[in-house]
Design brief:
Strand content: 25-35%
Distance between the termini: 22 Å
Radius of gyration: 22 Å
Strand order of the largest sheet: 14-15-16-20-19-18-17
Mean pLDDT: 87
Number of helices: 6
Structural class: mainly beta
Number of strands: 27
Helix content: under 10%
Length: 544
């Protein structure tokens, strides 16, 4: 672990774009001591997470020119703003926060769409791109669609039609559809809201249990009048001027730790991109039940079945999709160890599931898919649809690896014996798949890195087939306090984009020689600029 990033010999790892760099052509230069929401709305946002790549032209498989669609998950005020001091925790406000700071944070959330191209062997951002766009929690307007759109529950004083929302927050996971649109997911959004729901006339049975009234870093007397956010999932077409928010995804309750899949009612039309725009509005949402015999069953979350009835507080499919977490708890599903990424392999039709960790699992809760108590290390599952049919309602499944140190018997890790001392990892979080069916695993140990592995997060290659199945190899390591996210290949596998977020934050009190919490004035690293005038900056790295 050190203050900068490291990549395997024979590869280059360059900074493509950093927090505060221009996205829109009229964006001002980044000034960390003179930030404003107006500037941040035009600049690259904070804590880049998911990365999607869309080749340009849109119908091509170009590997040297394309769009990057990048999520911005959350903010770390303590290293964003001068004088902010140490973060008081996700559920507690920053005592030094002002309305201006919160406006900047809201403008830092959401997503960025940038055009990028490779010239003379180096990737660069196209600064005058007509595709360039910022999506923010501050002012991006969205249109609801799907079964809950226009229903009574989404209606507010600001929007009595129940079809319009403003902004999106905590954008972690994402995806690119087969028809070339960008999907964004929101998580942990309950921490962004404040107020006492105990006696609210529209409080649902799940609200109090989910802690929706917990204060967070945006609670402040000056900032309580923000309009409602888009809490669900968003879809946008590159170059478009609106975002549709489908309500057929888990929403305003904390999502249960389960695995979902959605099967659309209609099929993709590869020759008519516009006809695919509403495919996510109609279909069936399923949740997985894992069986110890190596099979799993997909249970439909459909109003009128499986206890999703008025007797249990569900009066329509809109209720099921608004309170998905509560709906998912009614069938006997399998609670998983923090599922973070699910990626299908288009070459062999298998699906790989990153389960990051779960230190709260007890001996009474152990099952075949989640076999360890106090699981600080995580595991990777492999799902096998019969005949490659992903719409099938039964799959086979198996454990690919159990992460952690294979030389520590107490960890009960499972790897191919060929895995070297540097080849194992903990806390798989995101992944990408190359043409050799190899998984590229980004890790997120958080503050727990000292107990999980004792080393920094990074990117590992993992074999999934043949004699090498389950063998890991370290490829890329990131700076102290950071998290690896969003690995994404170009179609030819010769370029890999990686998101590095919140450098200098997680567990810096364990960093030898520093051993304290980072602040704006005193960070554990000033990666990637290493300029005394600059704070640490979340960035996208391009590896070739």
């Amino acid at each position: 672990m050190d203050k900068t990033h490291q990549v395997a010999p024979g590869y280059s790892a360059d900074i493509l774009i950093r927090w505060g760099d221009p996205v829109l052509p009229d964006a001002p230069a980044f000034d960390p001591h003179g930030q404003s929401a107006e500037a941040q709305r035009r600049q690259f946002g904070y804590n880049n997470d998911f990365i999607g790549y869309i080749p340009l032209p849109l119908s091509s498989d170009s590997s040297d020119h394309g769009l990057l669609c990048i999520n911005h998950e959350y903010t770390n005020e303590e290293v964003m703003f001068t004088g902010a001091g140490k973060d008081q925790g996700r559920r507690n406000q920053h005592k030094a926060a002002t309305k201006e700071m919160v406006d900047i944070e809201m403008a830092s959330h959401g997503g960025s769409i940038i055009e990028t191209e490779k010239r003379e062997g180096k990737w660069r951002v196209v600064l005058d791109s007509r595709y360039a766009r910022r999506i923010t929690a501050l002012d991006t307007r969205m249109t609801l669609s799907g079964p809950a759109a226009g229903e009574p529950r989404p209606r507010t004083f600001a929007d009595p039609t129940g079809t319009q929302v403003t902004g999106t927050v905590n954008n972690c996971a994402g995806g690119i559809t087969p028809w070339g649109t960008y999907l964004m997911a929101a998580e942990n959004f309950l921490y962004y809201f404040l107020g006492d729901l105990e006696h609210h006339p529209r409080r649902t049975p799940a609200d109090k249990d989910d802690g929706a009234s917990d204060p967070d870093t945006w609670e402040h007397p000056e900032k309580v009048n923000y309009t409602r956010y888009g809490l669900l999932g968003g879809e946008t077409m590159p170059g478009g001027d609106s975002i549709g928010v489908s309500t057929s995804t888990p929403s305003p309750t904390r999502p249960t730790a389960s695995i979902y899949k959605f099967v659309s009612a209609e099929r993709v039309d590869p020759h008519n991109r516009a006809a695919n725009r509403d495919l996510l509005d109609r279909g069936t949402l399923f949740i997985a039940r894992f069986h110890p015999d190596g099979t799993l069953t997909w249970l439909p979350l459909t109003f009128g079945t499986g206890g999703l009835t008025p007797d249990n507080g569900f009066h329509s499919q809109a209720d099921v999709l608004i309170e998905t977490r509560r709906a998912a708890n009614l069938p006997r599903t399998t609670p998983m160890d923090r599922p973070e990424d699910v990626e299908p392999n288009p070459h062999n039709n298998r699906v790989y599931m990153m389960l990051t960790n779960n230190s709260k699992r007890t001996s009474a809760q152990v099952d075949a898919a989640n076999p360890r108590v106090d699981n600080r290390w995580g595991q990777i599952l492999e799902l096998i649809p019969p005949g490659g049919d992903h719409s099938a309602e039964t799959f086979d499944w198996g454990l690919l690896i159990q992460a952690g140190n294979p030389r520590d018997e107490g960890v009960a890790a499972r790897w191919n014996p060929a895995t070297s001392e540097n080849g194992w990892f903990s806390c798989p979080d995101n992944c990408a798949i190359d043409h050799w069916d190899r998984l590229w695993i980004a890790t997120d140990q958080g503050y727990n890195w000292k107990r999980a592995s004792g080393t920094a997060d990074g990117l590992w290659a993992l074999e999934t087939d043949g004699a090498g199945r389950g063998t890991g190899r370290m490829f890329f390591r990131i700076p102290v306090g950071a998290e690896t996210c969003g690995p994404r290949f170009t179609p030819d596998d010769r370029t890999l984009f990686v998101a590095v977020q919140h450098p200098a934050t997680d567990g810096t009190q364990y960093f030898p020689g520093f051993e304290r919490d980072s602040t704006f004035e005193d960070p554990a690293t000033r990666w990637p600029d290493f300029d005394p005038r600059m704070p640490p900056r979340p960035s996208v790295v391009v590896i070739t």
